[in-house]
Design goal:
The complex is a heterodimer of chains A (290) and B (304).
Chain A: H1 23-48, H2 52-55, H3 70-76, H4 80-112, H5 118-128, H6 133-146, H7 153-176, H8 181-189, H9 194-205, H10 207-223, H11 226-231, H12 239-248, H13 254-289
Helix pairs in contact in A: 1-13, 3-13, 4-7, 4-10, 4-12, 5-7, 7-10, 7-13, 8-9, 10-13, 12-13
Chain B: H1 17-51, H2 68-75, H3 79-108, H4 113-127, H5 130-141, H6 147-154, H7 169-194, H8 198-206, H9 211-222, H10 224-239, H11 243-249, H12 260-270, H13 274-301
Helix pairs in contact in B: 1-13, 2-13, 3-7, 3-10, 4-7, 5-11, 7-10, 7-11, 10-13, 12-13
The chains are: A mainly alpha (290), B mainly alpha (304).
Chain lengths: 290, 304
């Protein structure tokens, strides 16, 4: 395999030599990886589309012979899955709003409002990421119980906001740091207040960052399982806990289970595919630049 | 990864008001700082406190017992087995994710629309909730009509109840976790690859280095910081990952998939022994701190 510099393909950016060798090997690897990544998802969806007789076959069919929505009807029949889905959506939205509100204010203060001790804020937010979340479960549960916050979606949203705020701040700081300080300087000279600068100058510029952190927070809230399992009662819970309950039933019925799993993953997948550019930028920005 | 110190001093418009402005800045930054401090100090401290007292829905709750909960951890139950399972789960998971993620990051390291689409599709498993992933893979491992045994039968391999056999259940979970988490490695390593300057590749090519030599002597050293960071994050995440053990196997069969994260949950909320769960939590804090410290030390000393 020889190494050749690729012609300029991306103007306005430092030219990177791209090796053109191994084109075929590259695609073989990628196609195999795609099969590995996507076949399980395909399996979930087609299992949800098969009638029970077909799911009971000892030799499974790779394409549904008689596609049907009957499994989805069964999964949605008693309404508890939809209720749990709505609960997940509500908690995820509340948490994301809180993280964006307090997170962007803090990221703005840290990057555009020069004061001593900034490094400490950043260090602390990172340090929380080193702690095992399972190991924080017992103390937080006992406190929430004393405060009467267990068993309520608001209580769960509060602990999610606390748990996910540090990551959000960390990601937002990465973005806000790239905004030129001259903007704040000029606005201060013009007599604008700090909050006004944040609201009318910084936030409009930072919206890709807000989308990115918002998408990330929505998805991790939606996916969270452990705290939801412990903090909520089984009659008013989130979609992940509901799905785990369906899995745990003594005779898990594969069809409705796969239909429920499909329903539970639609929202995060839509958010991801719609916003994937921001999502990816937000995650890798902080990790690689700093 | 420390914060860069602000380079230009604050603009002192209005002299006297500068101080008040600074306090305003602190007020905004204080919320996450306090949250972060609380998230660190409170669970650590309160875990220690609980673990030294009785807290198991008994009439003696609140009585001081010293280190008895810790002693019981070692005397009863299967702490050694749990730690071994946790070690196998964490190390094998991270290694497989890293290798797969690195190969794919290299394969994706080329501009192009097709590549972007492939990368997005490859990220899908990582965005799916852990419980959904569990349901998907339960369907695949299902001994009746599951995909795993069907595919193996094409190659003449006999079917097996992968999750029902204590010898294979942990590996079945590790594979599921690799499926879910390899995109994270792929994503971070991809971003790292983009930051490698073209001159390095050119220099390697002028020196007549082939692809594998370039990867070994140029790419991997250049990626060192990203690899260290990703390993750290993946370690924390894998060590604590609870969803699969709970939803796929309930830590079983027997205790074959009981990691320390699952054990904390089971001890605290199934057996209602919050004191012992707290002792386990303290132990897991210590183990993680030791592992992270050792790793940071080792990766610092290696010549770069």
């Amino acid at each position: 395999m020889t190494t050749l510099a690729a012609p300029r393909t991306v103007p306005h950016r430092p030219v990177r030599a791209r090796r053109r060798h191994g084109g075929r090997a590259r695609w073989i690897v990628l196609v195999l990886a795609l099969v590995f990544a996507l076949v399980p998802i395909y399996w979930m969806v087609i299992s949800a589309l098969k009638p029970n007789e077909e799911l009971g076959l000892l030799k499974p069919t790779l394409l549904p012979l008689h596609p049907t929505l009957v499994q989805f009807e069964t999964a949605l029949a008693d309404g508890s899955l939809l209720a749990a889905t709505a609960n997940s959506g509500l908690v995820a939205l509340l948490t994301t709003a809180a993280v964006l509100l307090f997170g962007s204010a803090a990221a703005y203060a840290v990057t555009q409002w020069r004061f001593p001790g900034v490094g400490g804020v950043l260090g602390l937010t990172l340090f929380t990421q080193l702690l095992p979340q399972t190991a924080t479960l017992v103390p937080i549960y006992l406190l929430w119980n004393q405060l009467g916050l267990t068993g309520s979606l608001g209580g769960l949203g509060l602990i999610y906001s606390l748990l996910f705020l540090p990551v959000g701040v960390w990601m937002l700081i990465g973005f806000f740091r790239s905004l030129p300080y001259e903007l704040t300087e000029a606005a201060l000279v013009d007599g604008a207040s700090r909050l006004r600068i944040l609201w009318s100058i910084m936030l409009p510029l930072a919206w890709p960052a807000l989308i990115s952190v918002g998408a990330y927070t929505l998805i991790i809230c939606w996916s969270e399982f452990l705290f939801a399992l412990v903090f909520l009662n089984s009659d008013a819970t989130t979609v992940t806990v509901r799905l785990a309950f369906l899995i745990g039933e003594h005779d898990p019925n594969v069809g409705p289970l796969m239909a429920s799993a499909t329903i539970a993953t639609i929202a995060p997948l839509i958010i991801f595919f719609a916003l994937q550019r921001y999502f990816v930028a937000g995650l890798t920005g902080g990790a690689v630049k700093s | 990864m420390s914060a860069p110190a602000p380079e230009s001093p604050d603009l002192r418009v209005g002299g006297l008001r500068a101080d008040r402005r600074r306090w305003g800045g602190w007020a905004l930054a204080a919320i996450p700082a306090l949250v972060a401090a609380w998230l660190v100090v409170y669970p650590l401290g309160y875990n220690l406190w609980i673990s030294l007292h009785i807290n198991r829905l008994s009439p003696n709750d609140g009585a001081w017992v010293g280190l008895k909960n810790y002693v019981q951890l070692f005397e009863f139950g299967d702490l050694g087995g749990t730690l071994w399972t946790t070690l196998v789960w964490t190390v094998s998971g991270i290694l497989l994710q890293a290798v797969l993620g690195f190969i794919l990051a290299l394969a994706l390291d080329r501009p192009g629309r097709g590549i972007t689409l492939v990368r997005t599709l490859l990220l899908t498993p990582w965005v799916m909730p852990g419980v959904v992933v569990s349901a998907v893979w339960l369907g695949i491992y299902n001994p009746i009509g599951g995909l795993a045994n069907e595919v193996l039968s094409w190659f003449g391999v006999a079917g097996h109840d992968w999750l029902g056999d204590p010898n294979t259940a942990l590996w079945a979970l590790v594979l599921t976790n690799v499926w879910k988490a390899f995109p994270f490695w792929m994503l971070l390593l991809s971003a790292g690859l983009k930051a490698i300057p073209a001159e390095l590749y050119e220099a390697a090519s002028l020196d007549g280095a082939g692809y594998l030599r370039t990867v070994r002597h140029v790419v991997i050293p250049e990626l060192r910081n990203v690899i260290v960071l990703t390993t750290l994050l993946a370690f924390i995440w894998t060590f604590n990952y609870f969803d699969l053990s709970y939803a796929m196997t309930q830590g079983g069969p027997g205790t074959s998939t009981t990691t320390i994260a699952f054990d904390i949950y089971k001890t605290s909320f199934v057996y209602n022994r919050l004191d012992q769960g707290a002792a386990l939590s303290v132990l897991s804090f210590v183990l993680m701190a030791v592992a992270i410290g050792a790793y940071a030390f080792a990766s610092r000393r290696r010549p770069s």
